[in-house]
Design goal:
heterodimer, A: 554 residues, alpha+beta, Flavocytochrome C3, Chain A, domain 1, 16 helices, 21 strands, B: alpha+beta
Amino acid sequence: MPYPSYMQESVNKVAASREKRLHEEMPRIPVEKRQPVLSSFHPDFIKSGMRELLVGPNKGNRTPNELADLLEGNSRIDPAKINLEKPDFDVDVLVLGAGGGGGAAALIAQENGANVLIATKLRLGDANTVGAQGGTQAADRTDDSPSLHYLDTMGGARFTNNVKLVEALVKDAPDAIAWLESLGVNWDKNPDGSYHEVALAGEAVPRCHCAKDYTGLECMRVVRDEIRCRNINHIEFAPAIELILDDKGHAAGAVLVNLETNEITIVKAKAVVMATGGIGRLHVQGFPTTNHYGATADGLVMAYRAGCPLVDIDTMQYHPTCAAYPIAILGQLVTEKVRGVGAQVVNIDGEQFAHPLEPRDMLAACIIRECTERNKGIPTPTGQIGVWLDSPRIDLLHGKGTVEKELPAMVRQFQRFGIDITKEPMLIYPALHYQNGGIKIEPNGATPIPGLFAGGECEGGVHGKNRLGGNSTLDIWVFGRRAGRSAAEYVKTAKVGKLSLNHVNKWQDELKKAGLVEKRPVSPKILPDYARQPHDYLSGNVIDKIKPGSIKVA
Amino acid sequence: MSQTETKPTAKMIDIYLMGKKYKVPEGLTIMTAMEYCGYRLIRGVGCRSAFCGACGTVYNFKDDPALRFALACQKLIEPEMCLTQIPFFPASKPSYDINKMEATGDQLLKIYPDFIKCYGCNTCTKACPQDLDVIGYMSAAIRGDLKAVTEKSFDCLMCGLCAARCAQGLVPYNIALLSRRLCAKHLSKIPEQTKKRIAEINAGKYDDEIHEMQKMSVEQMTKKYNERKIHEE
C-alpha cells in the first residue's frame, strides 16, 4: 500500500527539499512564547473537552469529559453482597498492574521481605511499557548532570511539576539504568562500552538510553522473566474493581474479578501498590491512541472513590508523531527517537514549520496549526490529515544504514504496509499518548491513604502539565521501585483492622445526593468496547439469558 | 467510539472466523475485523501496535490450505481468509537465578536440556511474524554463541508462534530470552562513568544545585532554562 499518486506529489516535494533542509534549523520557541500557541491549538485548551468534577476529592477541578464520567461513576459491586470475612488471599503487598511500574514494585517489595501478589487485567507484562520505543533518560554522561536533567524536565512542563518528585526522578535515574542492566537488559552501547545515548525533545544533552527502538519491550520482557524466575505469585485476567479499606481507612486489599468467568476474588493485604497505568483507551476528545488495550484509568477511579486526591488531571499528552497513514495503523506511535536521530517535520510543500525537538505539547500544537489554520497538511483518502516526518534525512545525515540500525521496529512497522521509511517519509498526526497527571504521591510513592502506594503512569506530579520523552519509562522504574520499597517497609509494622467496603457505600450516597447515579456509567471501565453491535433490538448477551435452571427439561 | 467504523462505501469482502462466514469492509486488520463482526476481545489482544506479542495468529485461505503467520493487529484482511485466535499456548518456563549462572551454551543446556533435539526443520522461522531468523539463533544457541543469539533474536515479541509450531516441543523464544539476559549480565559491564555518577549522587553532589533551583521563581527558572546550552547534532 504505497502512497496514492496525489500524496506521492507531496512526497516528491519532500525529497526535493531534503538537501536544502539538511543543515537548516528551525528556532526553538522560548518557554514564555509557548502559551499562545498551546491555547489556540493544543487539545487541552479546547474548553468543551473538559468539565468540573461534581463529587469526590477533586470536586471543582476540571478534567476531560471522558475521565470525569468514570471518576463520577457507579461502583460495579454491591458491598452488601460481598463477604470480606474469608479472603481468598492474605498477603503483605498486593500490586495492581503488571507493567513496568507494577513489575518493579513487585520485585523490590519481594527483595525487601514482603510476600507479594500481583493482579493484572491482561497478561503479565501487557502494558504501555512494551510499546515505549524511544528510551529512558538518565544523566550519567560527563557533559550532563542530574541538575540539568532537573532543569530540562521542569522547563518541558513549564515549571508545573512537583519539585520533590522531579528531584527523586533525576537522582534515581542512573541507578535505575544500572539496576535494569544487572537484571539482564541489553542497553545499546558504544564500542568503548559507554551507553549510546540520544537526545529526545527538550533535552539539552543526549540522555536517552535505548535498546534500538524496542526499549520498553526489552526491559519488560526481562522484568517479567525475573518475576517468573522468583515465583512471585501473579493472577492474570483479574483486574481490581474496587479497593478494600480497613476500619481505620487504611488500604487493606482489593476486590478482583475474573474477566472470563466474572468470579470475584477477595485479596486482603497490608499494603496495596497501584500501578494500573494510563488512560489512552478513553479516546479523550475522540483522538486515536498509542496506548495498550487496557489503558482505561481504572486505578484513578478506584483510588478516587477511596478518597485519594488526583493531581494535574486537566492535562493529557498528545504525542505529536503517530501514524496517520495507512489507516489500519492510525494512531500507532512513531517514536520520538525518529526525530532524536535526525528526522524533521515537514508540510505538504516540503517545508519545515517547527523545530523537530520542541517539547511534545508544543510540537503537537504546531502540527495541528499547520493542518488547520495554515492548511498545509496532507489529506489521506479516508479524510485523516497529517504532515510528513522525513525519516530519509537520518541516513543522509548520519550515513546509510542508520535508520535500520536505530529504528528496526519503525522500519518493520511501515514495511508491512509497503512503505520504506529509509527512502520515503511517514505521514503523522498527534494521538492521545499519556496521562500527565494522576494519583497524588510523596517522593517515596506513598499516597494520602495510609497503606496505598502508587508508581508509574497512574501517579501524577512528576511530569506537571507536559512530560518529556524518555521520562515515562524512567518514572516507572524510579517510582515503581520506590513504591515497592516503601510498601515493604510499611508492612513490617502495619496492622490491618476489619476489612470494609464502607467507602463504596459512602460514595454511592454522595452520587445519589448529587443526582448522578442514573446519569453516570459503572466504572472502572476495564476494557474499551470496540465490538460493533450488529443490531440494536437485542439487549445484552444472549448467553446471559440461558442460566442453569432456566431451561425446562421435558 | 468504535475503531471499526468505516465508510459505507468500503468494498465488502468475505472472511471466515473459526469457520463461520462474515462480510466485512476492506482495510481492516484481522483484529478490527473480528471486532467488526461483533467479537469483544479479552484474550489475544494487547498493545495493538506490534510490540506485546499477544495477538500472534495463523490463517489460510478457503482454497489454499498453507498456513500463514501474522500479528492480528497488523495484518490486513484479504478475501476468503480463514481466521482464528491463538489466545494461549502452554510453554515451559523454568526458574533460574541469572546471578549464579554463566553466559555459555552449557548453561543454556542445563536450563533447557531438550533444545539439542532441534532437527533444523525451520518451521519456527517460517512461523515468526517478525521475520526473525529463529533457526539461525537456535543454531547459535547450540554452538554456545550467546552474542549471536542476542543479536538475531533481539526484535522478538515473545508471541510464542515458534513454540506453537515446533515439532519437538521446544520454546525458542524463552531460550533466546535467557541468552539475552546472560549476555547483558555476564558479557557486558555497567559503564564505570555510570557507577561513578551513582556514587556522586549518593554522596549528595547535586543536592545543593537542585535545592537552589527549587527555591527559584518561575521567572528565574525560565531565564535559566532558556539560557541553557543545547547540544546540537
